[in-house]
Design goal:
The chain is α/β, with parallel strands linked by helices and about 280 residues long. It has ten helices and nine strands. It has a nine-stranded mixed β-sheet, sandwiched between helices. The longest helix has 19 residues, at about 265-280. It is globular. The two termini are about 30 Å apart.
Length: about 280
């Protein structure tokens, strides 16, 4: 059972922060959960659950503090779960030297290169956390969705495309849509996965979508992208994912917004749309 570190009343529900010993990571990991009022009012009811993956430098707290999602989750009766973005306390030399690699930058993959391979296993961790949530919270295993921002948008798209049997809905804010082609992705993939770029393809959403012979999410995928985002042209490359979806016949709503940047003012503006999108998909 995970340990509750603290909890707070929030929109009739409860905001909790947990810690548990992770088998996948081999270290204690923290995650946050918002339980809507329905979890207390109808304790035997299984609720839809939505996993949110945060971006570079973030923690399990960032989304819950900044996005303003709890009000809508309370109304819809949706559980929100946000993991941390990397292992903490791995004590790998140089892991804290760079903001876009190492601590706070696990890229939601399983590292194969030393010295990262032992603890930097965020892809496996997400699968472990999904099972932990289903075992300990009133969450419906048949109604699980995933979304995220930037590095977390990359992670959400990859998790959904690699495990469509486990995640029924997916969306993203300003995702790193083609990491094999951008500086952030090349740095992370080269460091965690090695120089052989064929191994990178398993964690590139645009490559994974390009391998589909039919639409994996026929109900659609939602992506919001700010056109005032300073990372758009060099790092995010949504047009690569858009082209891959078109080739696979995957319905995609890619909304481009004038004036919006990469931060949480952007996310908080459109987070309600994403929660309602997932609620329609999950039923």
């Amino acid at each position: 059972m995970p340990d509750i570190l603290n909890e707070h009343a929030c929109f009739g529900g409860v905001q909790r922060f947990y810690q548990h010993d992770s088998t996948a990571i081999g270290l204690p990991m923290r995650f946050s959960v918002y339980l809507p009022p329905a979890a207390q009012q109808q304790p035997d009811r299984q609720l839809p659950v939505l996993f949110y993956l945060a971006g570079l430098t973030c923690t399990e707290e960032t989304f819950m503090i900044k996005a303003g999602a709890q009000r809508v989750a309370a109304e819809l009766g949706v559980i929100l779960v946000a993991p941390d973005t990397s292992p903490r306390g791995a004590n790998v030399a140089s892991e804290a030297e760079s903001w876009d690699f190492g601590v706070g930058a696990g890229f939601y993959l399983d590292a194969t290169e030393e010295p990262w391979a032992r603890h930097y296993r965020m892809h496996s961790y997400l699968l472990e956390l999904r099972e932990l949530v289903l075992a300990t919270l009133p969450a419906d295993a048949k109604r699980v969705g995933i979304f995220g921002h930037s590095m977390g948008g990359h992670g959400a798209l990859v998790m959904a495309l690699r495990h469509p049997d486990l995640f029924r809905s997916v969306s993203a804010f300003a995702p790193i849509a083609a990491p094999s082609q951008c500086p952030w992705g090349k740095k992370a993939f080269g460091g965690y996965l090695g120089a052989d770029q064929s191994s990178w393809q398993a964690y590139d959403a645009s490559v994974l979508m390009g391998q589909q012979d039919k639409a994996p999410f026929p109900g659609g995928i939602l992506i919001d992208q700010g056109l005032g985002d300073k990372f758009l042209a060099e790092q995010l490359l949504p047009e690569a994912f858009e082209a891959a979806c078109a080739a696979a016949g995957q319905p995609l709503e890619l909304r481009r917004h004038e004036g919006y940047d990469h931060g949480y003012y952007f996310i908080s503006t459109f987070v309600e749309d994403h929660l309602r999108f997932h609620h329609r998909q999950l039923g």
